[in-house]
Amino acid sequence: MLIISTGTLLLTACQKKPVERTLHAAEINHSSASSTNSLYKKNLGVLPLSNHVSTTISLGKNRQCTLTPTLLKSGNVQIILDLETTGTDGRLQGMNVARILARPGEPFDVSIGDMSLAFTPQLTVQ
Fold first, then answer.
1. Top-level CATH class of 21-124?
2. What integer pLDDT is reported at residue 90 of this predicted model?
3. Which of 5, 18, 64, 89 is most solvent-facing, going by the fewest CB within 10 Å?
4. What are the sequence ranges of the domains in the chain?
5. pLDDT at 126
């Protein structure tokens, strides 16, 4: 099952800021750019994620995507993806947010902004 929404995400509740990690495409297992059609397609392979821990991935071309997973009672994982694009001056030029529902260990594709990301979420509980 895949749930996608784009736009602005506004959180109004107080939250403890989760620990963040940054991964670069070269550090991700089986990382490669998709060879079909667009330069904006990325296959990230198996992506190690930790429950409630934000992971930031550098996608090149002044783009980064932050993924925040939440393991659900059903065994599925909800992942909030925040794709940010910055200019050469470092200023934010665009942001897209998507919320997806996936099964850990099963590959899937998601379109967010003008990017198509494919990966297999591998979730650990802390």
1. mainly beta
2. 87
3. 89
4. 21-124
5. 65
